[in-house]
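Suppose you are handed a protein chain with no further information: no name, no annotation, nothing but its sequence. What can you learn? This example shows the usual starting point.
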Amino acid sequence: MLSGVADSIYWLNRYIERSENIAHFAEVNFNLILDSPSDITQLFTDRPN
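A reasonable first move is to predict its three-dimensional structure. Written in structure tokens, the prediction is:
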């Protein structure tokens, strides 16, 4: 039973770390959008210029 609790805590920690990384990524992109000039319509493309 103790190993099951430890396993659950481990995976909970992994999901929390993953959500923190996604939140940081979203915050950085939001700040990038706020700081970009207003005449830019698309910041990133799939293909190089």
